[in-house]
Write a structure and sequence with these properties.
Elements: H1 2-18, E1 27-28, E2 34-38, H2 41-45, E3 65-71, E4 83-87, E5 94-101, E6 106-111, H3 115-118, E7 120-121, E8 125-129, E9 137-145, H4 151-154, E10 157-160, H5 161-192, H6 199-219
Antiparallel strand pairs: 1-10, 2-3, 3-9, 4-8, 4-10, 5-6, 5-9, 7-8
Helix pairs in contact: 1-5, 5-6
Length: 220
Amino acid sequence: MRTGKVLAFLLLLFGLAFAVPAVADVVELGPNTCIGGAGSAAEAFALTPPALKCDDPQYDRRDRFVRMHMPVPPTVPPPTVGLLWQTDPGAFSSMLVRFTFADGVRRLVDVDTQMPARNWFAGNRFSVPVPSHPASLIAVDTVVERPHAESTLSTARLMPKRESTRSHYARSLAYGLICGLLVIPLIYNLLFYRVLRESFILWHAAMVAAMLAYILTSSG
């Protein structure tokens, strides 16, 4: 009975950790992404729309620089309210994010390789602040040098900063509670093995350690 309650509590924490904000607050850009490759960042930004692939957004791994063009729907609020561009923190050599606004203004943000660690978002993402501007955001163009994970190109989204802060806190708390609940039986198994040297105790400890490793890696 007690084991069942513990499992139910773990499932509840998993639900909290992987819960996403309301659809109205998050705009997924991945499904409408167009992709093209080039030999330099300047060439990638200079690619015209016909040179980008929209129906099959798969990039050629032989291309050093990969350009992503992501149109932003008109329902997105102006960046004056505080917007964040988020994506998967897969390894990359360099990244440039260009934000285009309705009045023609463009802002370029240089994303260094340490920004994913500084702007970590619970759930294997990182945030890039959208520059504040009175006009609406109409497009996001990203040039990534040697992306190592396709998810960096396909999971981009826009989220209000206030919603990101709330979600990040809830997920971090849930991940911390889950890891704490997994560490306790792991320590117990290792100590109990000194009294009862049975292989099932080690197997159970290995299972708990694997679950802990999965939570740590999936949470970022």
